[in-house]
Amino acid sequence: MTTVMCFGTFDILHLGHINYFQQAKMLGDLLIVVIARDATKQHLNKKTLFSENERVELVQAISCVTKVVLGDTKDHLKVIENEKPDFLCLGYDQDIKETVLHKMLMERNLFPKIVRMKPYKENKYKSSIIKKIK
């Protein structure tokens, strides 16, 4: 079975997120979604409207998602080591560069394929626009 993993905060869940999950799921049989921890967001001085547990529950309700896990607060690659996905999917607007992530993964003998997802109505659902609503 092919396992796909994607990451995010998913604080205000919207159609752009659903599209992200659907694109990711098309790459494999199982879709694991990693939710950013409250402590991680607080460390970055970013507030969320919903707690990590509420965000887990919201994402679990999406039919194409197989499993939802909370990220590790100290080691962001730990969940990748634990789950060993075949694909890592990045949102089109996530900051990390594929080359940087690839190097970090190689240093830990992890070799999933990294795929950048396409935007879904980016002028309406881009995270920076959603932040203005908060």
Salient structural properties:
Rossmann fold, 18% strand, 134 residues, alpha/beta, 7 helices, five-stranded parallel beta sheet
Fold and architecture overview:
- The structure is a single chain.
- With 134 residues, this protein is an alpha/beta fold.
- The chain has one domain: 3-Layer(aba) Sandwich (Rossmann fold), CATH 3.40.50.620.
- It has seven helices and five strands, in the order βαβααβαβαβαα.
- The protein has helices at residues 15-25, 38-43, 52-60, 78-83, 98-106, 122-125, 127-133, and strands at 3-8, 30-35, 67-70, 87-90, 113-116.
- Helix 5 links the parallel strand 4 and strand 5 (113-116).
- The termini are far apart.
- 22% of the residues are buried.
- The model has no long low-confidence stretch (mean pLDDT 89).
Largest sheet: 5 strands, parallel
Q: In whole angstroms, how far apart are the ends?
A: 39 Å
Structural domain tally: 1
**CATH-derived architecture:** 3-Layer(aba) Sandwich
The spatial strand order of the largest sheet comes to 3-2-1-4-5
Kindly name the structural category.
Answer: alpha/beta
Instruction: Report the count of strand segments.
Output: 5
Q: What would CATH call the homologous superfamily?
A: HUPs
Uncertain runs are none
Helix-residue proportion: 25-40%
CATH class: Alpha Beta
What is the number of helices? 7
Q: Which value, in Å, is the CA radius of gyration?
A: 14 Å
H and E string: EHEHHEHEHEHH
User: Any idea what the shape is?
Assistant: globular
User: Whole-number average pLDDT?
Assistant: 89
CATH topology (fold) name: Rossmann fold
**Could you tell me the strand content as a percent range?**
15-25%
